[in-house]
Design goal:
Layout lengths: L2 E5 L5 H11 L8 H8 L4 E8 L2 E11 L2 E9 L8 H15 L4 E7 L3 H9 L3 E10 L3 E9 L15
Parallel strand pairs: 4-5
Antiparallel strand pairs: 1-2, 2-3, 3-4, 5-7, 6-7
The protein binds coenzyme A (COA).
Coenzyme A binds next to strand 4, helix 3, strand 5 and helix 4.
Amino acid sequence: MALSLRSYEPHDFSALHKLDQSCFPPGISYSKTALRYFLTLPSADCVVATDENHIVGFIVSEENPPLAHIITLDVSEKQRQRGVGTALIGKLESNLAARGVRSILLETAIDNEAAVAFWQRHGYRIEAVLKRYYLGRLDAYEMRKILPPARKAGIPSGEKF
Ligand SMILES: CC(C)(COP(=O)(O)OP(=O)(O)OC[C@H]1O[C@@H](n2cnc3c(N)ncnc32)[C@H](O)[C@@H]1OP(=O)(O)O)[C@@H](O)C(=O)NCCC(=O)NCCS
């Protein structure tokens, strides 16, 4: 797999919406209106993963530094467990950290074992159970990661000046 990461471009919209529909059940996946709303927020960031120009995953966040919120992370079913999600969250976290984000929040359904394992593997910790968060009946975990302080370029840590 020749994985590349890039920023969202408006012509990606249909592919992202289709991928989101395939990743989540009806009612949890986003309508076109909702997905467009999040993607066009001035505070949104969206990283897209491609393999040979074919979209295999994407992640969307919104931010108000020092806080950010992950809206969704979607990896195409055939491309899972190959590091696509890891590449996407790595790039997003580094974008967010560079803009002063220190704390990232997200919600995930408590029965989504792959997602809970994925987030825990990447340092996200369960903070709360949100009762009936999805569809008025499915509980969600609220999960948070505190990012380490961004290193300032050109100033090695501990150096006096
Ligand atoms: C959750 C999801 C994004 C993971 O993406 P991915 O590209 O498969 O993840 P990666 O290959 O980078 O996996 C990284 C780690 O996550 C964990 N993980 C991923 N999938 C897992 C699974 N099915 N079962 C258990 N652990 C899993 C593992 O710890 C894995 O590390 P390892 O490869 O060393 O074992 C993907 O399964 C997905 O898109 N699911 C549907 C949409 C969704 O639920 N999104 C998250 C909602 S908040």
